[in-house]
Design a protein that fits this description.
Elements lengths: L1 E2 L15 H42 L7 E5 L2 E5 L1 H44 L7 E2 L2
Antiparallel strand pairs: 1-4, 2-3
Helix pairs in contact: 1-2
GO cellular component, one term: cytoplasm
Pfam families: Prefoldin_2 (PF01920)
Function: Binds specifically to cytosolic chaperonin (c-CPN) and transfers target proteins to it. Binds to nascent polypeptide chain and promotes folding in an environment in which there are many competing pathways for nonnative proteins.
Length: 135
């Protein structure tokens, strides 16, 4: 995903791009990058929560005598169904909290991006495009 930032200058309406304008364009680009990154992280965290819920459901189907290997880092550690369930619940809560934090960060970035967009579009009109483009 790339963002298209460009100015189309016409001979009739010469608009000067000031250093401040360029700084706003650069700031918008950085914010957009962070926004896209946070969106991806949130999707990953939501997927993690779903996977952890499915794993917890599977654990409930096992007997109490079964040993459950859980991957922690690069190693597998064997847990009882009860302790595995507790561990999965802890991991799920952590992922949900991270997702909530990332969502709040994303909202703050979106507000700032919208402010910059309004400012830049008011000056440059259709000569600038701050919309998403696909790679």
């Amino acid at each position: 995903l790339c963002i298209l930032l460009f100015l189309r200058m016409s001979t009739q309406d010469d608009i000067t791009v000031t250093a401040e304008d360029q700084q706003m364009i650069n700031k918008f680009a950085r914010l957009h990058q962070n926004f896209v990154s946070l969106t991806d992280e949130i999707k990953s965290l939501v997927n993690d929560v779903q996977n952890l819920n499915e794993a917890a459901d599977e654990i409930m189907l096992l007997g109490d005598d079964d040993s459950i290997p859980l991957k922690l880092g690069t190693s597998f550690v064997h847990f009882t169904p009860e302790s595995a369930g507790e561990r999965l619940e802890s991991m799920k809560n952590e992922s949900e909290e991270n997702s909530t934090e990332k969502t709040k960060e994303k909202e703050v970035i979106e507000v700032e991006m919208n402010r910059l967009k309004a400012t830049l579009y008011s000056k440059f009109g259709d000569r600038i495009n701050l919309e998403d483009g696909d790679d």
